[in-house]
Amino acid sequence: MGEAIYYVYEYYRNDKVYYVGKGSKSRYREGHTYVDVPGLDNIKFPGENMSEDDAYDLEESLTYKYGLKIDNTGVLENKAHGGKSSYVPSFTGHNHTEEAKQKISEGNKGKVRTEAHKENYSKPKTKEHAENIRQANLGRKDSEERREANRRGANRPDVVKRKSDAMKALWKKRKELGLGRKGKIVNKVEVQF
Known about the structure:
Number of strands: 3
Largest sheet: 3 strands, antiparallel
Number of helices: 6
Oligomer: single chain
Structural class: alpha+beta
Distance between the termini: 33 Å
Strand content: 5-15%
């Protein structure tokens, strides 16, 4: 069943919910890519001391109940419904400068990649590898220019269309797997709009 260290949180603005998330420790007050984190008075916890599976189920249940702005079903700013099966690919991508492309090209010249190397690219990272990446990025901040470019990129018509197409494909896959639109409700939570 797992440790009961997880919770589900909701962000409110003007007494209306606008985001639902699942977390542990201090996740509810850490930065989110597309969502502003409100003050502590505007954060509620509909579920606490839960196993991770139960937290995923409640998160998914609440996101379906409130609905998402991105697919015109509701009020949440979430990019996808929660839950274990929820996966939203990165839509905006990163465009390297010509200078950066040149450096990458120079760095790759003369490198020989065997089939074993190529096979390793698709394998999941080890915990040690993931920790090395985390350590390398600690304290790193994107420039305001980069952040603004990310915000603009997320709202470009071609990016919005890719998001929409990806969500449609996700829903089609969920339907094929028999998951439907409703998640299992773990705790009965009264929701008011």
